[in-house]
C-alpha cells in the first residue's frame, strides 16, 4: 500500500504514468477495431504503435530508475550528517515554503487580482493570476 501523504511521491508519479501508459495502449487497441479510418486497420499502424509504446515504456522506466537511484543516494547522504548539519538542511528546506506576510495590504510583495481585487497573490502567482484573469475576461466578454 502506498503511504498517505499530502503530496505526490516518486512512487505515486510512477503509478500515475504507468496508468496513463496502459490507458494509451488501451485506446490504441480500441482504434484498431475502427474501420472508418483506413490506416487504423493497416498492419503498419499496429507495428509503429508497438515500436513507439516499447520505446516510451523503456524510456520512462529508465528515467524513473535513474531518478530513484539519485534520490536514494541523496537520502543516504543524510545518514552521515551530524545534528547541526541536519538542522541546517531542514531549515533551508523550510524557508522555500515561507511567505513574507505584511500588515500593510498595499505592500509591494502582495499583488491583488481576481474579481475587484479580492484575491491576494504572492511570488510567481501574480503572473499566473494576470494570465488567468486575462483569459477569463476575454471569455466573459465574448
Automatic annotation (TrEMBL):
Membrane-crossing residue ranges in chain numbering: 14-41, 48-70, 119-140
Record bears the keyword Membrane: yes
Superkingdom per UniProt: Eukaryota
Keyword terms, alphabetized: Membrane, Transmembrane, Transmembrane helix
Stretches of the chain forming a coiled coil according to its record: none
Xref: InterPro entries: Neuro_actylchol_rec
Protein's UniProt name: Transmembrane protein
Lineage per the UniProt record: Eukaryota, Sar, Rhizaria, Retaria, Foraminifera
Amino acid at each position: 500500500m502506498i503511504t498517505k501523504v499530502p503530496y505526490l511521491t516518486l512512487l505515486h508519479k510512477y503509478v500515475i504514468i504507468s496508468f496513463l501508459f496502459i490507458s494509451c495502449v488501451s485506446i490504441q487497441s480500441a482504434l484498431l477495431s475502427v474501420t472508418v479510418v483506413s490506416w487504423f486497420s493497416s498492419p503498419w499502424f499496429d507495428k509503429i504503435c508497438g515500436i513507439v509504446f516499447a520505446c516510451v515504456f523503456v524510456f520512462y522506466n529508465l528515467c524513473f530508475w535513474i531518478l530513484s537511484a539519485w534520490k536514494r543516494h541523496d537520502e543516504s547522504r543524510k545518514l552521515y550528517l551530524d545534528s547541526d548539519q541536519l538542522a541546517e538542511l531542514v531549515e533551508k528546506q523550510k524557508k522555500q515554503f515561507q511567505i513574507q506576510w505584511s500588515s500593510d495590504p498595499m505592500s509591494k510583495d502582495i499583488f491583488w487580482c481576481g474579481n475587484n481585487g479580492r484575491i491576494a497573490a504572492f511570488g510567481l502567482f501574480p503572473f499566473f493570476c494576470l494570465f488567468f484573469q486575462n483569459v477569463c475576461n476575454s471569455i466573459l466578454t465574448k
